[in-house]
Design goal:
Layout: H1 3-48, H2 55-62, H3 70-79, H4 89-96, H5 101-112, H6 119-126, H7 135-141, H8 152-157, H9 164-173, H10 179-186, H11 193-198, H12 208-215, H13 222-229, H14 236-243, H15 250-257, H16 260-275, H17 282-288, H18 296-303, H19 310-317, H20 324-331, H21 338-345, H22 352-359, H23 366-375, H24 387-390, H25 393-400, H26 407-414, H27 421-428, E1 434-437, E2 444-447, H28 448-458, H29 463-470, H30 485-490, H31 499-506, H32 513-527
Antiparallel strand pairs: 1-2
Helix pairs in contact: 1-3, 2-4, 3-4, 3-5, 5-6, 9-10, 10-12, 12-14, 13-14, 13-15, 14-16, 15-16, 15-17, 16-17, 17-18, 19-20, 20-22, 21-22, 21-23, 22-25, 23-25, 23-26, 26-27, 26-28, 27-29, 28-29
């Protein structure tokens, strides 16, 4: 065994032992110091809290001392407010116990300014202020009519970082709407489109409250246009429900495209539920072509969000027997016939529920091919176990559902004996990189993640470290040596590197170069 190999392995073992033996003592020492600091801060906070705050509220204000003297300084500022601006001790504590420099700065501006807001509104407005809050700018920007409550600006602006466009929306809306309707329509709006939607001529027959509900926070006039095109068989309330939040007229187009027989079967409420949020007339086409014996719940589950007829075609051809629930599980969201082909090519002995989970939304037969590679009893995994003793069906589904290649399967049965089932599954989930190993008598496809993990286990690295280093490793080309790069790097890191440092330095490495560079840099610092 080469001496460098022995040294690197010994170095990692010593590092792991040191971390294990020292971590408990370090944590205990750090915890004790932290508790003492809290006690000191609490005592200081209680001492400096103004006398106007009763004793029974002082501890509530200072908490456990983790916020230092900030609550006390906050209370000192607020007790100075006089007259109509004076705060009750309960209001002061409610605000100050969770305060920070930004919320205190917000309150200071309100107290020293000419704000007409109530103290309750001031507390609600400022208590969640952060570095980038613009709540006060929002308050000064909102031009509410005299008929609105005095606290309207604070109520409207109390959300985190109100978008500037919402202020313009509110100033337009306030001229026609009540305070409550203005908040519903514009609070948080990213543009003035909500008010433009509200003012659309398509809404002329709606009450203000109905138009506000339709256009609340709309990003365009699409909800109004959608409402205009909704089928005559829907009531105003149903059309509003259909089109609220729409970003196109497609929900209305979908509702109008449902054939009469299906429309009568599911009723207006079903039409709305099926087509709300639709991006095309796909749900209508799907529902209209579905088996007439399907219950409404299964029809909705199959066709809601559909883009074409694929879900119903899948449902008719699904190789899962007569179980409607399993066929629905397989076919929901299908985009093509690939889902059925996948289910047909799934391992024969796999139970039907797992076939449905494996192939749902499949775009090719690759998930089935991946599962078959792991499933086949001819392929004993590197640990010497067959599938049935090493990996249950749910793990196969977890590894192969959505796979774009058989790489997860290659990874699983090529993974080293020393990895636990849990670590092997973590390693291979989402594995995509495969290279051609030409070191033997004939070229063999190899999983990059498994080859990398094999090098890590051979060098006695911890299983979790191996997984994190190797699971997303990619090799371009046929150089098998590149697969070991993260491990070569990890065993060469400078003495004193924590596991976290090793992962940051060596993840994605194709050689030991990063660690050799780190050694040179750390050596330069030591010599200087």
């Amino acid at each position: 065994m080469p001496s460098d190999y022995k040294k690197s392995t010994l170095h990692l073992i010593i590092l792991a032992l040191l971390l294990l033996t020292s971590s408990d003592g370090t944590r205990a020492s750090a915890s004790g110091n932290k508790d003492k600091a809290k006690e000191k801060n609490l005592a200081s906070c209680l001492k400096h809290t103004p006398k106007q705050i009763p004793d029974h509220l002082r501890h509530r204000n200072c908490g456990d001392g983790s916020n230092g003297e900030v609550p006390a300084q906050c209370a000192k500022m607020m007790v100075k407010a006089r007259g109509s601006n004076a705060f009750a001790p309960e209001n002061i504590v409610d605000f100050c116990r969770g305060s920070n420099s930004y919320s205190i700065g917000c309150m200071k501006r309100l107290i020293t300014g000419t704000s007409k807001l109530s103290n309750k509104a001031k507390v609600e407005l400022c208590k969640h202020s952060s570095e980038h809050s613009n709540n006060l700018d929002c308050v000064s920007g909102v031009k509410a009519p005299r008929s609105f409550p005095a606290d309207f600006p604070a109520t409207f602006c109390s959300i985190d970082s109100p978008p500037p466009a919402s202020i313009a929306c509110a100033n337009d809306a306030a001229k026609k709407l009540t305070a409550e309707e203005t908040i519903t329509l514009c609070q948080g709006a990213q543009s003035t489109a909500a008010f433009q939607c509200f003012s659309h001529k398509a809404n002329s027959k709606l009450s203000s409250a109905e138009a506000v509900k339709l256009c609340s926070k709309a990003a365009s006039s699409a909800p109004a246009e959608c409402f205009k095109r909704a089928p005559v068989g829907l009531s105003s309330a149903q059309s509003i429900e259909l089109c609220t939040g729409a970003d196109s007229t497609q929900p209305a187009e979908c509702a109008g495209a449902i054939d009469g027989k299906t429309s009568r079967k599911i009723g207006p409420e079903g039409v709305v539920e099926l087509c709300k949020g639709a991006r095309s007339t796909g749900p209508a086409a799907c529902a209209s072509s579905a088996d007439s014996k399907l219950s409404w719940e299964h029809l909705k589950g199959l066709c809601q969000g559909a883009l074409n007829l694929a879900p119903t075609a899948c449902y008719k051809d699904a190789p899962l027997g007569s179980n409607e629930t399993l066929k629905l599980m397989l076919c929901r969201g299908a985009l093509s016939g690939a889902v059925v082909e996948c289910a047909k090519h799934a391992p024969y002995a796999m139970n039907t529920e797992n076939k449905a989970l494996l192939c749902n939304r499949a775009q090719s037969v690759v998930p089935a091919s991946c599962a078959e590679q792991i499933w086949s009893s001819k392929r004993g995994v590197a640990a010497g176990n067959t599938l049935r003793s090493a990996l249950n069906e749910s793990h196969v589904v977890h590894l192969c559902a959505g796979a774009s290649s058989v790489a997860p399967a290659l990874c699983y049965y090529q993974a080293p004996h020393g990895l636990s089932l849990e670590h092997r599954t973590m390693l291979c989930e989402g594995a995509a990189s495969v290279f051609t190993d030409g070191s033997g008598s004939r070229p063999v496809p190899r999983s990059t993640a498994a080859a990398c993990a094999g090098a890590g286990v051979d060098r006695a690295l911890d299983g979790e470290v191996v997984v994190h280093l190797c699971r997303s490793h990619v090799v371009e080309g046929d150089d098998a040596g590149l697969a070991n790069g993260p491990i070569d790097c990890a065993v060469s890191t400078p003495y004193g590197f924590s596991p976290q440092d090793v992962l940051k330095l060596c993840t994605g490495a194709t050689s030991s170069s990063p660690s050799l560079c780190a050694k040179q840099v750390s050596g330069s610092f030591s010599s200087s």
